[in-house]
Amino acid sequence: LGQEHLGSGELARRLRILRMAARQPDTQIFQTVAGATAQRQRLNIEYHGRERDAVTERTVSPQRLVHYRDNWYLDAWCHWRDGLRSFSADTIRSARILEEAALDVSEKKLDEHFKDAYGIFAGKAKEWAVLSFSVERSRWVRNEEWHPKQVGEVLKDGSYRLRIPYSDE
To answer: Is the pLDDT score of 11 beyond 60?
Structure first.
């Protein structure tokens, strides 16, 4: 629900929804991707991979759309890479629905593969980071869930130590 859906009454004046770090996908492309996902059809996409700063053309079987931290992602089976991949919707440059049915991947396999796939913790954890926060800053940090497997402890002096798994330095 965005601010524009609140109308113009008292609630709209008293409630603010602030989006953080949102990247807007092209509306037409997003509609095509959503349609293919719902209709269980394969897609041909041109995708700009930020990591390599390169555009590739791929055929994918869309599995689901994910809204994570104000951004949309397409979880799909990539036929080029022969595996599951996540595509940021705002970096899909073009999308065309194909006549071929999408390959179905089980919910269990999708959940298992993508459970650690979003945010700064993307990928299977290989190491643990240990972060220390002052007494003042610990008041904010200790109540946040940064990762489902995080381990936090308040130290005797009131400071806070947070251990979180990560995959890539």
So the answer is: yes
